[in-house]
Amino acid sequence: MENVYKDIKKLNDIKLIVFDMDGVLLKNRNSWDVLIDKISGNKIKRDKMIYTFDYLYRHNIPAHLYNSLRSGNMARYLNLNDISPNLHMTMEEIKKMGIKTAIVSAGVHEFAEYLGTMYGFDYAIGNQIDTENMKIVKKC
């Protein structure tokens, strides 16, 4: 195991490590599409419409999906099996070295916050829902 960490001393000058969430911390490449797929469920069959992040970003969020996409409800749709393996071990090693960590993602802000809290990230930011205008707000 010692050989695995032989180059870790090179990290001594690093103050902050920033991680992307989708495709890095989460195996899935688009957390918005995962979230939209989970909340739309039977609504896709009823509307004969396949919603994607790109569609909702361009056309706004339809009223029948909006309540499920409001802040506070979204973190529960994160599939914990989607978290990259060994993230816990990686974060432990980084924290031992006193390096700050951040999640900066175009993905779901609530997923980033949840992961940030669960794994001890210092900062977490992602895209959010504009609660007044039923739009996805890009912050990253």
Q: Give the spatial strand order of the biggest sheet.
A: 1-2-3-4
> Which regions are unreliable across 5 or more consecutive residues at pLDDT < 50?
none
Give the rounded overall mean pLDDT.
83
Proportion of helical residues: 25-40%
| Percent strand | 15-25%
**What can be said about the biggest beta sheet?**
4 strands, mixed
Number of strands: 4
- Helix-strand makeup class: alpha/beta
Shape: elongated
The helix/strand series, from N terminus to C terminus, equals EHHHHEHEE
Radius of gyration: 17 Å
Q: Helical stretch count? A: 5
Distance between the termini: 37 Å
Q: If you had to describe this structure to a student in words, what would you say it looks like?
A:
- With 140 residues, this protein is α/β, with parallel strands linked by helices.
- Helix content is 37%, strand content 17%.
- It is built from five helices and four strands, in the order βααααβαββ.
- The protein has a four-stranded mixed beta sheet, with helices on both faces.
